[in-house]
């Protein structure tokens, strides 16, 4: 279920397993990839370290294993995004005339197509924004562990150059890490709310 917490141990192991059978590692053996295979009844249990990362039929191709990894990773990632969305909806102070956009489906297409590990979340002005200032915020969230890069700027209505609202923010605020995606979202919301109040802006 999407409203359950993502399995972070699985995500870490599955991303590692995927990398070990893709790209320049595509031709190496499963043993060299650090994968262990165990046949149980009519299935093959695939593990990376101590973590079960896939259940496959007795006969399968490397491509099918890769698709299996990506399918389960996508399921866990959607849980992570649900956590992010829930916290940001309640904790992020989105200014009037702006909206929050989570580019989930674009990120899922990138994940399925090339193993992309990035989710972009934007706070952007509505097309008919008539306020005195426009804010541009981006949260680049990594999908292999609760970590992100945060950017925030302000552009005056008269088109003056943008102001970096995180110019004096500590690194831990601009590049936050956490033990869960819910905690990561809370940290990003606190940082962005402070940035929008001008607490980190350049003098």
Please characterize this protein's 3D structure:
The mean pLDDT is 89. The strands form two sheets. The chain has a five-stranded antiparallel β-sheet. It has two domains: 8-76, no CATH class; 84-196, no CATH class. The chain is built from five helices and eight strands, in the order αβββαβαββββαα. With 203 residues, it is an alpha+beta fold. 36% of the residues lie in helices and 26% in strands. Helix 2 (62-91) crosses helix 5.
Which strands sit side by side, in order, in the main sheet? 4-5-6-7-8
Q: Tell me the count of domains.
A: 2
Largest sheet: 5 strands, antiparallel
Low-confidence stretches: none
Question: What distance separates the N and C termini?
Answer: 47 Å
Task: Compute the CA-based radius of gyration.
Answer: 20 Å
Q: Give the H and E element order.
A: HEEEHEHEEEEHH
Strand content: 25-35%
Number of helices: 5
Helical coverage, percent range: 25-40%
In terms of quaternary structure, the protein is single chain
Q: How does the overall form come out from the CA principal axes?
A: elongated
Number of strands: 8
The helix/strand class is alpha+beta
Mean pLDDT: 89
Structural topology:
Elements: H1 8-20, E1 35-40, E2 43-48, E3 51-57, H2 62-91, E4 98-102, H3 104-114, E5 118-125, E6 133-142, E7 148-156, E8 163-164, H4 171-174, H5 181-196
Antiparallel strand pairs: 1-2, 2-3, 4-5, 5-6, 6-7, 7-8
Helix pairs in contact: 1-2, 2-3, 2-5
């Amino acid at each position: 279920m999407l409203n359950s917490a993502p399995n972070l141990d699985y995500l870490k192991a599955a991303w590692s397993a995927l990398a070990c059978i893709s790209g320049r590692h595509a031709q190496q053996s499963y043993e060299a990839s650090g994968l262990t295979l165990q046949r149980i009844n009519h299935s093959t249990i695939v593990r990376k370290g101590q973590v079960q990362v896939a259940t496959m039929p007795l006969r399968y191709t490397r491509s099918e294993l890769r698709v299996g990894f990506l399918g389960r990773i996508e399921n866990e990632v959607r849980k992570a995004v649900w956590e992010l969305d829930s916290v940001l909806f309640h904790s992020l102070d989105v200014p009037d005339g702006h909206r929050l956009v989570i580019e989930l489906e674009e990120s899922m297409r990138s994940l399925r197509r090339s193993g992309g590990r990035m989710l972009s979340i934007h706070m952007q002005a509505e097309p008919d924004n008539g306020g005195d200032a426009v804010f541009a915020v981006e949260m680049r969230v990594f999908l292999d562990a609760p970590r992100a890069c945060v950017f925030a700027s302000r552009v005056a209505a008269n088109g003056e150059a943008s102001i970096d609202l995180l110019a004096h923010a500590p690194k831990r605020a601009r590049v936050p890490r956490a033990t869960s995606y819910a905690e990561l979202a809370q940290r990003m919301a606190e940082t962005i709310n402070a940035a929008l109040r001008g607490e980190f802006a350049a003098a």
